[in-house]
């Protein structure tokens, strides 16, 4: 907490303090009211983004303070009254070299960690799991190509939120979804991202993982993350895509490996039964298979619900500095 108070967004905090506003630090996985700074980092890339942000902010504040003090000094020392006969000096070699070289050094000092971060973001480690996200107007489809699992992710309406609340599950307006993406903790997830061929550009974003990539029709873009904290991480489409742009959130739930295995099992079975139902000619048998599929999907949802309940019990979502606690 102290580290974040001292380092994270010092300029923003300073402005907020000047304005007399209360500074609330961001929660994990979702935005919180009056939030300052980033949402808690839950992946190596997000952690590095935060470090880089803090570092650049320190430079920004230092330069701002330096220039402000310099201006105040000039106003005091060289005003007409204090300095009636101004100097005629127009060039000063050492000073000119200094104010050229020092900014260059500052830019180099920023460029080195910046390129290091870019390299981390774009050098993909070996994936434990591949996820495919496709943006539609206006919802997402998520698929696990290696496992044959695919489902649509749509935002929950008020009735859906009430249903979650009735089960003592966290319900977040405009962020909670019907089908969450489930991933195991501490595994590398590569995400392939695209958009409907006849659609528009979207953007698959999860701030907690430092992932933000455009979903472009006819192109495959990608990102990767390695979730280090269990819980649910929300994101929103971040590319203006039309009327319901604000209503196509993404929710990634990070769970223990065995929970993930249970979910995958039920989803795979549901998929197979669904395929069998599609091929079945007999009406009655097909009906029976479709019912089985529904039960299996419900079982998968039950696994997620159980994990969500446990996670909600462990973590209070808002107003805690979970990033610091997680370290
Ligand atoms: Cu969109």
From TrEMBL:
GO terms for biological process: ATP synthesis coupled electron transport. InterPro entries: CcO_II, CcO_II-like_C, Copper_CuA, Cupredoxin, Cyt_c_oxidase_su2, Cyt_c_oxidase_su2_TM_dom, Cyt_c_oxidase_su2_TM_sf. It comes from the Bacteria. The chain crosses the membrane at residues 55-76, 97-118. Residues 30-125 form the Cytochrome oxidase subunit II transmembrane region profile domain. GO terms for molecular function: copper ion binding; cytochrome-c oxidase activity; oxidoreductase activity. Binds a copper A center. Residues 1-26 form the signal peptide. It catalyses: 4 Fe(II)-[cytochrome c] + O2 + 8 H(+)(in) = 4 Fe(III)-[cytochrome c] + 2 H2O + 4 H(+)(out). It is found in: Cell membrane; Membrane. One of its GO terms (cellular component) is plasma membrane. Residues 279-306 form a coiled coil. Keywords: Coiled coil, Copper, Electron transport, Membrane, Metal-binding, Oxidoreductase, Respiratory chain, Signal, Translocase, Transmembrane, Transmembrane helix, Transport. Residues 126-266 form the Cytochrome oxidase subunit II copper A binding domain. Its cofactor is Cu cation. PANTHER family: CYTOCHROME C OXIDASE SUBUNIT 2, CYTOCHROME C OXIDASE, SUBUNIT II. Belongs to the cytochrome c oxidase subunit 2 family. Subunits I and II form the functional core of the enzyme complex. Electrons originating in cytochrome c are transferred via heme a and Cu(A) to the binuclear center formed by heme a3 and Cu(B). This is Cytochrome c oxidase subunit 2.
